[in-house]
Structures are given as C-alpha cells and as structure tokens.
C-alpha cells in the first residue's frame, strides 16, 4: 500500500517536470544534492544582517564617534567621573541655575529660565540690538563651543545656539552688575534675582561647578557686542574674578610679609594679571588660576612619564600621606603659626614651625574644593596644586582637636556648626582621588617636616616643655624640684665629707 502511493507521487512529479524550464530543473537538482539534511530552518530563514550584527555595528559606530570626541584637544568642560561622585553628588549639581548643555532643562533649575529671558530682554532693550545679531555671532562660534564639552551634545544647532545666547547673556549681566551696579543696568531695587544677595551667592556657587560652565570665548563675544567695542584680553576674566571673589576671600588685609617670596612655587606663579591673560577656558579655570596667582603658561601633565617608572598610583590614605596630624606633630615639638597672606596654598616650614595661611571655611567651601579637584583630575593640561593642598590639610586634620588647635592659632576660621564638621569636610575631600605624593608641590616641605619629626631629641625636648614649662605653676614646681635635689646632694656630700675628714 505504501509502495503504490509513493510511485503515484513520483509519477505526478515527473509529469510536471516537462512544464519547467531546464535551467529550473537543474537548479532544483543541484540544490537537492548540495543541501545539508541536518541544517536547521532557522539558519535558512536568517537575514544577512541580523539584529545581533546590527547592534554590534551600532556599538562600533558609537566607538568611532567617541574616538573622534576623545581626539579633540579643545575639551575643557567635563562630566565629573563616577568615582568622584560617590562622596557627595550634590556638590557637583547646580542648585539654582544651569549653564551649558549638561543640566539644560533639568526640572530642579528650570524656574530660573524665565529670569534668563528677562536678562536677555534687558540686554536688548539697553543696547537697542536685534536678537539676530547675537544669534549670528554665537552661530559662528558653535563648533568651537561644542568642542569644549566632553562627549556629544544631542541638542540641534538652533537649540544649542539659543541656549548659549540665553545663558551667556544671563552671566554677562551678573558679571557687569557686580562691577557697575544692577541699577545702572536697569534692574529694580527689589528685583528677585539681581537685587537679592542670597540669590547672587547661590549663583556664585553654581558657577564654579565643573559641569556648569560656559566657554569663555562665548562670554567674550557677547561682551564685545554689548559694549560696542572689542574687549581687550582678559576683560571677561577680570569680571569673573570680581564676581567670584567672595567665595574664597578671607576678609583680612594683607601685611608687608605677604611680599615675601613663597617657598612652595616658582617665581612665575607669584602674580596673576587677568588683563594680560588670554588663555582662560571658563569661569572655574580662571578662578583656579587666580587662586594660584599664575600667569598664562600651561601646566602640562604627562601621565605616561608617571606610569613608566613602575609605580602605580594607589588611592588609599597611606599612599597620600604627606605628614602626620597636628596632634602628633605637636608632640614632636613642631609649632604652628598663621602666615599673613591670601595665598592659602603657600605653606612654609622653618625652624620647627609650620607657617600656614588663614583659610575661611563656609557652606560653599566643600563644593568649591571638590570641583577644583575634579577639574584637576580630568583636564590633561592642568597641575594638581589644589589637590596637593587638600591632601596636605587632610593629613594635618584627623580629629576635631586638630581643628580646634588650628583655629586657636588663627589658621582656620569656619562658619560651620562645630569643629567636627570641619574635620569631616577635609577628611572627605580626597577619599577617591587619584594622587601621587611625589608630584605634589608640597613634597619637599613634607620631607623637611618628617625629617624634623623623626629626630628623637625634638620629641624629648617637646615632652619636657609640655610637662614642665607649659604653665607657670609647672615651671615653679620644676624649679623647686631641682633646688630640692641640689640641696639633697649638697647635704649628702657634706655629710660624707665630714665623716671621712674626722677619720
């Protein structure tokens, strides 16, 4: 029964063959011979470009774009690395106003947008300019501005230019208002932003955040349009320093000793003239340069030289140890004295005394130092002086007792709740920071301090001073004890002398 049915099907197929072309018959015959009976139907139905291959090609294309982005040498505004954010993420996020594309449209700071439009409107009303003039000027700088930001910007060309004009005019109004007065710019005395000291202070803190920067070339161009003349080199930098000065100002007049040559940095780092400096990248960079009193020479950092010596950079506290804490140094006889200078980083050591300039600690100090350190960690043409200073102070301060003594010496003044909060602030600045102490500008000074600390004679003398000369009563007790010992010795001597003399 099965054989007859099979022969019937075969005869039906052979009857259909003459109706086909010979080429098609050969194709059917060849495919029947070459086909693999074990091959699955899934492979036959699989398209040439599967979803897997498409995904890989997309990732390679993204890698190509990332390679192009990394090859750009003009990048200077970075996203804070994840390992730095773990300490305090809020220190890197703007709280009042967003500047630039990284936090553009963020719900937290969107309320400031209407005040940005008010500032832009005030600029146009005051200068009698058309908005197209500003849009066209920034359009010419679009590529240069985009290259300043790390990674690709998803905003379209029109959206990016609009954002740059809006944010840039808002910043220029702030900068000019602090110098000239906001009333001179046309703002009312009760303006909710430009007349409120609290709002200005909050904006100052947001303007030194690494992710919240505008390229200095945009600010310079907008200032040129508003003033009607070509801005001289460093004009925007001067306005920025006037605006951001309260963040680090120690409200203390300088003494003549401030003119002494600093031991820790080179002579070309002593002065900073913003009018002669045309290499600024953004507000944070200009502010950092002013803190270090540097000129326009870049601080090149060549990582390959650091890694080629066979010593890896370790992120634990021991590898960052420059000196001992205040309590331990005092036990070795090292003294602390405030140095009268506003260069807070300019620390010296002479004749067993650490001379440290005064530092004012307030609510914005932590965010300021964290963003300066993050910039030094990210930017290749940047040194590590702020990081070195933070690590050095972290070594000095281990407890609130250390803070209390530095406060007693006039070195630290703070507006925080307690000395313990100041200790926690410094101990949390460099927890995840990659730092090599050999490349610190304070490494030579640290060696001097450690050499002095390791001499036992200094420890013995300090112990003697602390026990017997720390107060008048202890000194009187020490002198009385010495006199008592001398009298006892004389009594014993004369007693023995008279005894042997009689014999």
Verbal overview:
- This protein has 503 residues and is mostly helical.
- It folds into 3 domains: 71-253 and 264-292, no CATH class; 312-460, no CATH class; 471-502.
- The chain has helices spanning 2-16, 22-34, 41-45, 51-71, 82-85, 113-127, 131-140, 142-146, 157-180, 197-207, 216-227, 235-244, 283-292, 303-307, 326-331, 365-378, 385-396, 400-408, 419-427, 443-453, 456-468, 472-502, and strands at 335-339, 348-350, 353-357, 359-361, 412-414.
- The protein has a 3-stranded mixed β-sheet with strand order 1-3-2, with helices on one face. A two-stranded parallel ribbon has the order 4-5.
- A hairpin with a 2-residue loop joins strand 2 and strand 3 (353-357).
- Helix 9 crosses helix 12 (235-244) and helix 18 packs across helix 19 (419-427).
- The longest helix is centred in the C-terminal third of the chain and has 31 residues, at 472-502.
- The chain starts with a helix and ends with a helix.
- The model is unreliable at 1-5, 7-44, 250-272 and 294-317 (pLDDT under 50).
- Residues 1-49 are annotated as: Disordered.
- Residues 20-30 have a biased composition (Basic and acidic residues).
- Residues 39-48 have a biased composition (Acidic residues).
- Keywords: Membrane, Transmembrane, Transmembrane helix.
- Residues 1-18 have a biased composition (Polar residues).
